Amino acid sequence: MPYGYTGKVLHVDLTTGKMEVEEPGEGFFRKYMGGSALGSYYALKLMPAGTDALGPDNVLVLSLGVTTGAAISGQSRVTATAKSPLTGAIGDAQAGGFWPAEAKGAGYDALVFTGKAEKPVYLWISDGQAELRDASHLWGKVTGEVDAAIKQELGDEKVQVLQCGPAGEKQVRYACIINMSNRANGRTGMGAVMGSKNLKAVAVRGHKRPEVADRKALAALARWGAQNLEDSGVYGMTLNGTADVLGYQNEVGGLPTRNWESGSFEGYEALTGEVMTDTILKEGDTCYACVVRCKRVVETEWQGHKVEPLYGGPEYETLATLGSYCGVSDLDAVAYANQLCNMYGLDTISAGATVAFAMDCFEQGLIGLEDTGGVDLRFGNAEAMVQMVEQIAQREGFGNVLAEGTGRVARRLGPEAEKLAVVVKNHDLPAHMPEVKRSLGLIYAVNPFGADHQSSEHDPAYEGDFDGYRERLAQLDLLEQQPEFSLSPEKIRFALYTEQFYSLLDSINVCQFVYGPAWHLYGPNQLVEMARAVTGWDLSLWELMKVGERRLNLMRAFNTREGFGREDDVLPPKLAKPRKGGPSEGMTFEPEELERAKDIYYGMCGWDQQGVPTRAKLEELSIDWVAEAIGL
Amino acid sequence: MTMTVHVKLYSRFRRHLPKEAQGEANVELPEGATLARLLDQLNISGRVQLVSVNDEPEPDRDRILQQGDNVRIFPFVVGG
Question: What is the count of structural domains for chain B?
Answer without folding.
Answer: 1
